[in-house]
Amino acid sequence: MLQESFRVVAKTHHGLEEILAHEVSMAGGFGVKPAKRAVYFSANLETLYRCNLVCSTALRFLVELKFYNARNDDELYNFAKRVRWTEMLDPSQTFLVSSTVYSPVFKHSHFAALKIKDAIVDTFRDASLPRPNVDTSNPDVVVHVHIANQNVSIMLDSSGESLHKRGYRITGMPAPLNEVLAAGMIRLSNWNPETEFIDPMCGSGTLAIEAALLASNTPVNYRRSSFSFQNWPNYKHALWEQIFNKELEKVAPPKAPIWGADISSRAVYASKDNAEAAGMSEYITFKKADISETKPTQSEGVIMMNPPYGERLQPAEINDLYAKIGTQLKHYYSGFSAWILSSNLNALKFVGLRPSQRLSLFNGALQTKFMHFSLYDGSKKTKKQ
Ligand SMILES: C[S@@+](CC[C@H](N)C(=O)[O-])C[C@H]1O[C@@H](n2cnc3c(N)ncnc32)[C@H](O)[C@@H]1O
After folding, report:
1. What is the pLDDT of residues 277-326, one digit of tens each?
2. Architecture, CATH, for domain 6-157
3. For atom 12 of ligand 1, which residue has the closest CA?
4. Which residues have C-beta within 8 Å of that of residue 106, sequence separation ≥ 6?
5. CATH 3.30.2130.30 in the chain, residue ranges
6. Which of 154, 274, 317, 328 has the fewest CB atoms found within 10 Å of its own CB?
7. Residue 382 pLDDT exceeds 60
């Protein structure tokens, strides 16, 4: 069904494109090019399977089936009929066509999706085969159509549910970080996994769990129940098992402490549950503590946090909380690199340290700053800067 090598589009969050491009190259992708919230590359099936398993900053991997120029609805349909759909799905399987359209010619994305759906169904009918049914909630095969002006790209989703669903978030807490964003934040920080990692406001434990997955070389999606490519008629189970086992052989315990803390005991329970579900509980400790009680146990490392942004707190309370974070960093974290993700730019000023980097990231729809405070030379020098 697919050629030896094919084009793939990996989707990610804004600001993580370069990080994902590096991960894809490490997993065997070639011709890798970062783009807007995406990375383009070429792969074979083995690389595609591995990317789904190990790339921590990808949301999904789409395989390009056809790229063409369409001037009207008939061309949209006719070119779509040239795809060998009968090799892409079995008549007994269900499918869904999703679409994104930015075009003055094709104004309605729903209509474009319908045209592609018709092309798929008609291809089966023309081959005198039973037609596969559409399923909007749990389809076996998902086709994406992306139209920009007259450029149409028809893609097959190899991942299925977004890859941030690693399968370990079994106990939720309010305002959790998306797992892909958390993994991206850790990689952006250039944390050396041979040094300590601390999240003193861990909520449901996402940052600490992603840090442990990285430090232990564990493939991030090894606990996920399924991937869409496993429903494709060309799925090679033996190849998947071989890749899976080879990646698992690389797992080794982290070399430095990784821990999380939270003022809420519910958050600590949730973090422990989730770490257990991720298979990381041996590698992380969680404790109930106010940020003012948390201190590093080593001389070097990263302290990273996603404090409340203040939606439910009074401005004075939130400013005090950020000032408390700053005091703790200045007094106890000399030698550390501190990273704070927040959308509350005013509260961030109360940390009282000059950031050495300010990166823009989105936490869901919220525009946030990911601030780096370098405490390597001690608090006094950092303040003077
Ligand atoms: C936005 S949530 C963090 C979400 C987390 N990153 C996740 O992925 O689930 C902020 C957390 O900070 C905790 N928190 C608030 N004030 C605190 C304090 N003074 N000391 C420690 N934790 C605090 C809250 O209990 C909450 O769990």
Report:
1. 999 999 999 999 999 999 999 999 999 999 999 987 677 899 999 999 99
2. 2-Layer Sandwich (3.30)
3. 201
4. 70, 73, 76, 112, 147
5. 6-157
6. 317
7. no
